[in-house]
Design goal:
- There is one protein chain.
- The chain is mostly helical.
- It has 15 helices and no strands.
- The protein binds a DNA duplex through helix 3 and helix 6.
- It is found in: Nucleus.
- This is Transcription factor MYB35-like.
- Pfam families: Myb_DNA-binding.
DNA sequence: AAGTCACTCAACCGCAGGACG
DNA sequence: GCGTCCTGCGGTTGAGTGACT
């Protein structure tokens, strides 16, 4: 038995709000304040669902909201936060005074995602698209160099976004690392090296790291927010980088279940962003691609995996208590 | 000028979790 | 412990609008 609707939807108005309706809400809130939104429509004389009133207030009418466009600093902060915690828009919005989760979400979906894709960054994983392509190839069994794409991926990564042109581009061309190197120089921090750099998107040419209080302060080894991928050596071009390797070397996973321990530095350099990123990656990997992490050679059960994440979570929080102030999770 | 397409963003929907009786 | 109500959240939709043909 499902929950009854919050209101009689057949008798409430839907759609855009009129100035008159806005004025009613503003007048009511000015006198009584916010709270108990289910009663507000009746008391304020509105033929609207309480939920709709609350949304109108929180997303548009609140006096502390900004209605101007996003600044470059705000955009940078959104990208950094998204890389760290994924699509937790309310948490990200709390970092941006005057912005709502809806604002942030819309801005991400309409502007920032495209901006990243233009730069050759997969907006879901925040990895260079070339790396995502390599991983997909391995997952889908098209690991050899000249394999053509035969099946489309099923996750929400750049390969399946509404931006089908990106997919078409990649399907029709074998993406060379040089292509991405040339198209997105910001990604690759070592242009002189012939080694393929896998450092995800990083505003390295910005002097102000807006997230110093979050990602950077959490790093025990670096002042930048750049992320060093685990098992980096396996990701050089021409080698058979495998998504499973990525999982197996994940610092979140139990060490004794990893067939190959990457090295203590990989764990000691672990940042908050890394952990979040990996957890998100794992979740996406398993949910979107139906990849069973147990099938990757690990022997832990699902519950022990969750326990492991929680343990690591506790460990991180004890080491970096400031996280509690930065993100609610 | 008219039609089509792409984009933006306000609003809706359904679910989850917390508070409370 | 259970049911109900309220609120918060993230994903999705669709009306409005401007750009393009």
């Amino acid at each position: 038995m499902g929950r009854p609707p919050c209101c009689d939807k057949s008798n409430v108005k839907k759609g855009l709000w009129t100035e008159e309706e806005d004025a009613k809400i503003l007048a009511y809130v000015a006198i009584h304040g916010v709270g108990n939104w289910s009663l507000i429509p009746k008391k304020a004389g509105l033929n609207r669902c309480g939920k709709s009133c609350r949304l109108r207030w929180t997303n548009y009418l609140r006096p502390d909201l900004k209605h101007d466009s996003f600044s470059p600093q705000e955009e940078e902060l959104i990208i950094q936060c998204h890389r760290a915690i994924g699509s937790r828009w309310s948490s990200i919005a709390r970092k941006l005074p005057g912005r709502t989760d809806n604002d942030v979400k819309n801005h991400w979906n309409t502007k920032l995602k495209k901006k990243l894709m233009k730069m050759g960054i997969d907006p879901v994983t925040h990895k260079p698209v070339s790396q995502v392509v390599l991983e997909f190839r391995n997952i889908s069994g098209h690991g050899h160099e000249n394999a053509s794409f035969k099946t489309e991926p099923s996750n929400n990564s750049i390969l399946t976004q509404s931006n089908s042109s990106a997919w078409e581009t990649m399907r029709n061309t074998t993406m060379s690392h040089e292509t991405y190197y040339n198209n997105s120089p910001m990604i690759f921090t070592n242009p002189a090296s012939s080694e393929f750099q896998t450092t995800p998107f990083h505003f390295s040419n910005h002097s102000n790291h807006l997230l110093n209080g979050t990602t950077s302060s959490c790093s025990s080894s670096s002042s930048s927010a750049s992320i060093t991928q685990p098992n980096q050596g396996a990701q050089t071009p021409g080698t058979n980088f495998c998504w499973n390797d990525y999982l197996l070397s994940d610092p979140v996973l139990p060490q004794n279940s990893q067939t190959q321990v990457v090295g203590s530095s990989a764990t000691s350099n672990l940042t908050f962003a890394q952990n979040e990123h990996h957890i998100n990656s794992l979740a996406e990997c398993s949910s979107h691609n139906n990849i069973d992490t147990n099938a990757s050679g690990t022997s832990h059960s699902a519950s022990s995996f969750v326990d492991e994440i929680l343990d690591k979570d506790q460990e991180m929080l004890s080491q970096f208590p400031q996280l509690l102030n930065d993100f609610d999770y």
